[in-house]
Amino acid sequence: MQTRSPNGGKVAVLIVGGGPVGLGLAVELGLRGIRCLLVEQRDGSIGVPKMNMINARSMEFCRRWGVAEDVKAVGWPDDYRNNVLFVTAMAGFELARFEFPSYRERGMLSYTPEGSRRCSQMLFDPMLIARARGLPGVELRYRTRLERFSDTGAGVTAALRDMQSGEESTIAADYLVGCDGAESSVRQALGIAMSGSPALSFNLNIFFVSESLRAAHCKGDSWVNWLYGPEGLWGNLVAVDGRRLWRLSMIGLPHDTDPARFDAAGSVRRAIGRDFAFEIVSVMPWLRRQLVADRYRRGRVFLAGDAVHVMSPTGGLGMNTGLADAVDLAWKLSAAVTGWAGSSLLDTYEIERRPIALDNVSQATSNFAKLRKVPVGPEIAADTPTGAALRAEARAVILGSDYDREYVQEGTVLGYAYDTSPTVWPDGTPRPARDSRHYHPTARPGHRAPHAWLAPGRSTLDLFGDAFALLRFDGAAGGEALTAAAARRGMPLTVHDIDDAAAAEMYGRRLVLVRPDGHVAWRGDAPPDDAGLLIDTVRGDIGGLAALDERPAP
Length: 554
What we know:
single chain; alpha+beta; nine-stranded mixed sheet; 23 strands; 25% strand; globular; disordered N terminus; disordered C terminus
């Protein structure tokens, strides 16, 4: 699986790793006209599903990339309900459940043009590959391994090996980004450590196909089912495609468990609680971890995705956190390559993204720890008075202790902010109270610019991506000084006049400057006194950063 374009031995950005994060970065750079080369030692195919959830923010990225409709078309069935069950077995006793609508029942959401979608990585990666291939500045090389690299200070030189021919070649790049997973060779070569818990649990994923599982019990459709026995939480059963592909995760096994000798079929039957027709596809071991890299950058080499954060899948935050890394980094690399970035702009990648990873990794671990606290006993699955009492106690804990936070987390997904970034100009308003469950739209600097429909099918979010955007509400005058200051520095800036009362109220100021990644950089009711200082600040100029303490009150 190969895409080649003439590169003359030099690219702007060399991306190592062809998973969703590396591909997302390539698409973001390609849309900006930045020449990049992605190398991946695999052949690009995905034989077994990994990621299975694209959250609302990532779907907004997919909207920009032009693949959101593809995700909806081939992903989760629109009429399949997204319920969550806690059971002793699918044909056994139900401890508790959380009801969530199908996508058809959910309909449009008020706060985003794109809601979350379940979509296996087996389907998602090919969409990103096709999109990247369609961009003239992007080259994909599969079955190609990074052997070594050196940062010269003025660029990066890398040795690549074609794994089919064995040939080694050299390529020069302005920057290198390691998107090469939890065991990142790029991170290891940089000598950057990971901090946290390296082993929360040892697990096996059993993938199987069955046309009859849904008829093997009477609990209705659900996308995830937590399985409890006398030993406590022992597994979870996930519907991968909402049709015939399933994943049973065996949780907390001894670290020396041999997948080849493990009774996968017996475990599947235990999960369902009766015999039924199925076929095992694969059994894969994996380690649940809680790790964040100590650094995200060294010189001209950056890290993104699992290379800098590895988390429990409880919450589905892993890949989605990585895609947000890619979007944050892409516009900054583009600015550096095209010459309008201030000298400190690239430093803000770690400043902005590492705290988000720390929060998300911690939340994922908390979700997992909570699942292990459900009270059980030897008779949890027994049809006895003692068993019924145990199940009633478990139900009370699950329904009364915020166990649905893992599935109701739009505050985490859309509410994260870069308000402490030195390239964001504060407006003096207090930071909203933290709410991981619910998203509260705000255009406070550092936050994601809110969604509002401007016309059928056209969102405010569709105005962002290629350049800084200056939004002018209620016929606001001004902005000429900002556009002139941006032009003098070569910073792309577009002006959008918006005549919409609801959007104006949501954004809270008559003038709002939004970054290419869709986060608010500044807002005010009148143009700034020093447009040049503001432009220098938001583009990471060292002079602007030095003057932060002297910024006037809004």
